[in-house]
Amino acid sequence: DVMAVTVPAHDPAGDPMQAVPVLQPARMAIVSDWPLHRIGPDHRPRQKQPTHLLVFRGRQDEVRFVECNAMAARLLAELASGRTGAQAVRALASGQADASAWQPHAAALLAQWQAQGLILGTQT
Q1: Are 69 and 49 in contact (CB under 8 A)?
Q2: For 75-99, what is each residue's pLDDT tens digit?
Q3: What distance in Å separates the CA atoms of residue 107 and residue 18, rounded to the nearest whole number?
Q4: Which of 52, 65, 66, 122 could potentially form a cystine with 73 if both were Cys, beta carbons 3.0 to 4.6 Å apart?
């Protein structure tokens, strides 16, 4: 919540599957052996539970925690490298027999991330 960032110019209505997404610059992808976002007085896991978390500043400057799977974390890394959503999915699906089947799932995930404020829009 105190990370100093500059938000780049972007089109908030842009389609992150077709254009390069602008990601919230105040973000971190965390991989932990424990579900850090759920640990508290009433929840103390005794066994490791590998967890992928996306931590970012939301639209109202609140800190958001989104649990995801390893593939979603890889998709975010591909997007951060400057690829469109469609290019990122193709890169992840390389060598898979039915890579086109991933497109609708990725599009839904990117739309969700855009609604949450992890994706601010697309490059202008």
Answers
A1: no
A2: 999 999 999 999 999 999 887 767 7
A3: 10
A4: 52
**Sequence-distant (≥ 6) Cβ neighbours of residue 60 within 8 angstroms:** none
Q: How does pLDDT run across 12-29, given as a tens digit for each residue?
A: 999 999 999 999 999 999
Distance CA 8, CA 98 (A): 35
Cβ–Cβ < 8 Å for 24, 2:
no
Distances (CA, A) of 54 to 11, 71, 98, 99, 124: 22, 12, 27, 25, 25
**Nearest of 81, 76, 87 to residue 110 by alpha carbon:** 76
Strand partners, 27: 56
